[in-house]
Specification:
The complex is a heterodimer of chains A (519) and B (506). With 519 residues, chain A is α/β, with parallel strands linked by helices. Chain A has two domains: 430 residues, Alpha-Beta Complex (Amidase signature (AS) enzymes), CATH 3.90.1300.10; 61 residues, no CATH class. In chain A, helix 11 links the parallel strand 7 and strand 8. In chain A, helix 12 crosses helix 14. In chain B, helix 1 crosses helix 4, helix 8 crosses helix 9 and helix 10 packs antiparallel against helix 11. By secondary structure, chain B is α+β, with helices and mostly antiparallel strands. In chain B, the strands form four sheets. In chain B, strands 1, 2, 6, 7, 10, 11, 12, 13, 14 and 15 form a ten-stranded mixed beta sheet that branches. A three-stranded antiparallel beta sheet of chain B has the order 5-4-16, with no helix packed on it. A two-stranded antiparallel sheet of chain B has the order 3-17. Chain B has three domains: 301 residues, no CATH class; 113 residues, no CATH class; 56 residues, Arc Repressor Mutant, subunit A (Orthogonal Bundle), CATH 1.10.10. Chain B contains 16 helices and 17 strands. The chains are: A alpha/beta (519), B alpha+beta (506).
Chain lengths: 519, 506
Amino acid sequence: MTTHTHELIRLTAAEMAAKLRAGEITSVALTQAHLDRIAAVDGGERGINAFLHVSEEEALRTAAEVDAIRAAGGAEAEALHPLAGVPIAVKDLIVTQGQPTTAGSKMLDGWMSPYDATVVTRLRDAKLPILGKTNLDEFAMGSSTEHSAYGVTRNPWDITRIPGGSGGGSAAAVAAFEAPLALGTDTGGSIRQPGAMTGTVGGKPTYGAVSRYGAIAMASSLDQIGPVARTTEDAALLHELIAGHDPKDSTSLTGEVPALAETVRGADVSGLRVGVIKQLQGEGYQEGVLARFHEALDALRAAGAEIVEVDCPSFEYALGAYYLIMPSEASSNLAKFDGVRYGTRVLPEAGPLTIERVMGSTRAAGFGDEVKRRIILGTYALSAGYYDAYYGSAQKVRTLIQQDFDAAFTKADVLISPTSPTVAFPLGEKDDDPLAMYLNDVATIPANLAGIPGLSVPGGLSEGLPVGIQFLAPIREDARVYRAGAALEKLLTQDAEPLWAQAPELAETAEAAAHAAGK
Amino acid sequence: MTDTLTDASPLSFEEALERFDPVLGFEVHVELNTKTKMFSSAPNAFGDEPNTNVNEVCLGLPGTLPVVNGKAVEYAVKLGLALNCEIAERCRFARKQYFYPDTPKNWQTSQYDEPIAFDGYLDIELDDGEVFRVEIERAHMEEDAGKLTHAGTSGRIQGADYSLVDYNRSGIPLVEIVTKPIVGAGARAPELARAYVSAVRDIVKGLDISDAKMERGNVRCDANVSMMPKGTTTFGTRSETKNVNSLRAVEHAVTYEMRRHAGILAAGGTIVQETRHWQEGSRTTSSGRPKSDADDYRYFPEPDLVPIVTTAAWVEELRAQLPEPPADRKRRLLAAWGFSEQEFRDVVAAGLLDEIDETVAAGVSPSVARKWWMGEISRLANARDLEPAALGVEPGTISALNGLITQGRINDKIARQVLEHVIAGEGTPEEIVTVRGLEVVSDDSGALTAAVEKAMAGNPDVVEKIAAGKLKAIGALIGPVMKETRGQADAGKVREIVLAKLGIEG
């Protein structure tokens, strides 16, 4: 890899955009640099495996188009989106015409969507070269990306560890400089927790701020598409691009998209009331994580923020409620995968080929264990006679959590917590303990239950691994999490390199990796 | 052998009613005639190539989301109002979950415990004028399923060689109207069943919210029947005969089920709660799948849709747009037009109520309007294999033709020719009569008198009869006169001339 490439891919998306606008670099060169990086670090036994599909040809075609428009100048060049020509990766839960979409499942092996998700249409309209599709836990069900049918994704900070999940592919791709930007989806923390684990920025917009049309649904009332980037400014730019009303999504919000990038650039926290959630610290949180968290609080306080404690007593039940609502909706959303119309079809090994048996054998073979676990849970929770006790009660808890947030936001402008109780854990560590895995999302889940925006920003290292700090704000107040997140980012990097720049160098080929391992 | 008797010979209808009282219940599905489907922008159209009126949403492809068709909600509210229902201020859709290949998402989006309309009634007039009130429990919105065609001898999915599915129908908006149990219809239950479905069909047609063609499945009836021993009030176990798709079949299906239930109960057996299939050929029903109240569809509120909110102002605006209820209108028109009951029924059966009403409004007498529509226009339509209304005859045309006849400028026969020319697009009756020179021969030139004289001379025997007082015999002279004048003679005028020539007082 040339020095030039090495430098190009380490620019922020905003810097790349500025250089493209100034004519200092071309989008083709920029896109090719990322494709080269993907080729160098993504494959092989010790590769990151962030990508399930790389769309070299399409990405370069879009890049060439942008370059041609820029070269021609005039009104069309003027009208280009600020991010035009900056490449991006898309989580493979989001459908793309012309590129396969698997949702990380054998069930959709080889399936090509005949339509684009609304966010993908926005990317295409703004002419961002789409590098490819990123790995995830099957149907976004997991917190480690170990439940993908297409292999684990490795954490660029330590390839023996998980990158978080479900959006481990998008986070790892951005952390490993395989892409400057990526799209993720967040149902219980699938953007923010991988952000924390990989030292990147991950945003979960207010529910309804970004169209869900074309995101393969796990839990409809919780799912939200959001940005993955290395800086808050980059996340804000991408957030602005994908947000906005979509008539194809009935739950989509109307109203202006806030000026988030502007908020980021002028961010300061003097006078900002920052609420520390009593329930999201202490037991279960690693010492190193709490140490970085308290340093973050100190930094914010020193910069003029008012730190207050808020009490959210119902959070105790959040995980329980989440693991009823999410599987209930998922059990329904995944019913359509039956081998009748598209995707994988597996015939029963013996016996008659009735429709029920073909559906049954397809679902038995096509879904992985974690997906089956959640379908069974959800089917049970929605069954007649259990509905009120399970789904009904969970919805009541949801209301209580919303009320806790409402009360907290009378005392604080934003809330703060560690994004995840732990740093990235070793691959395979929680294989046999789904509950331990579920506990990793304890801090991120309440935001999904309440529909509020959240942002995870890097908060330093513990044991050489990134720690994430999460900010939360009331519904439609996405600008507040960017304001607080950007301010913390600035405070933590004023005397040090940004966290992402401290990541260890990755071995660039399988041979190099073998060589490095042998030393 | 089973322990419990579940089958026996049906009793006769009379025997059944001697021992049992029927309880009925209907679920009528109405397909709305919106331009697009319930939750997608795919066209709502009948009869196209299979799987052409589909898009990613109504195929339920991964990632797709539903959006409610506002027009369908408007239609559902109108129907609810026409059924004298309360309209919900806020209601939601739910997912009704079951695995079946005609439902691409493996759930049907339907209203469950929050119907848009509820607690209504419909007064049903039976043939003899007796009015029976049917209570409506609810009218709720849902989407239609795709259409399965099963290859093989069974005709059902069980035992089929293979099945084909057409998703054109998948997602077409439906309103399902559910009655409360109907008690006390007795021997008139089958007649009431027919009249109820007919009334619902007339209402949706009058509202213009459905094509209302039962043969196309626009209006489909599931008939619930149970029997309870006379003198008791506890309902028996019911059967549900699905998709009975003609008025006659509804009547027959209820009759048969009453007899079948009575036969089994009289023999000491028990009724299996199940769905039944209507067999048109034998006019019987056959066993479908067992259905219990405990069928678990795992309903839960559809999280991809927001609740539907109806404002009182909007509901009142729609109420103000409602046409006169079909039953009221029929009663009013029957009294106003003075037709016999049979004549009126024929007009209704021919579907020409609107046309005649409009023609009367254009100034033509009801009997003349009926004569034109039921006579010549229907005949011309038949010959072209069209509905009479499809010929495009305007009420003004009938009015103009009738005016020309009353003025004595054309006769009935010429008027019929003029009508054909109007249908052929040659212009107004007035223009056609002028351009084609079709006006009746007046006697200004003496041409008619000459023709009459010629006819009289050629038929002395007829003239003799007339002279002897048999005035009806004049008819025999009309033909030759018409022939002479190429049909343009006024028959009344001919009669006048004949009588004058013979010196008889008309």
